[in-house]
Specification:
By secondary structure, this protein is mostly helical. The chain contains 6 helices and no strands. It is elongated, with a radius of gyration of 17 Å. The model has no long low-confidence stretch (mean pLDDT about 90).
Length: about 130
């Protein structure tokens, strides 16, 4: 059984026996599922990107050697927000997260995974 079908009621899907309206309000269980999903998806995406031979094959890290450029790419891809090359507006917190995780772990993969998780669980993604 696909997990979405199994867990759909916990996400607010109407079953038309005990509820006839879908609950579209964010709730703690939805936030928990999004957090779990983000952790799994981001770790897998970073690992796949490291193994990908060319930049065009990468989902999260096409510009990993240039963190600012990669953050701009992710901001546009995941949140639909364009940040011009001469600006860091909206990237400060993401850059600080990247730098903090990198400083603590000395692992760029963990730093990018942390940035990816933060972006997938951000309100901007839900609104996009």
């Amino acid at each position: 059984v696909p997990m979405f079908d199994l867990m759909a009621r916990t996400l607010g899907e109407a079953n038309y026996l005990s509820s006839t309206e879908e609950n579209l309000e964010p709730n703690p269980i939805f936030a928990k599922f999004m957090d779990d999903m983000a952790g799994q998806v981001c770790a897998a995406a970073v690992a796949a990107d490291r193994a990908a031979p060319a930049a065009q094959d990468k989902m999260v890290l096409p510009y990993a050697a240039d963190p600012a450029r990669n953050l701009r790419f992710l901001r546009l891809k995941l949140h639909g927000i364009y940040v011009p090359e001469n600006s860091t507006e909206g990237l400060e917190n993401l850059q600080a997260l990247y730098d903090g995780v990198l400083g603590e772990t000395s692992s760029a993969d963990q730093a990018w995974t942390g940035v990816c998780i933060a972006m997938l669980t951000a309100p901007e993604l839900m609104a996009y």
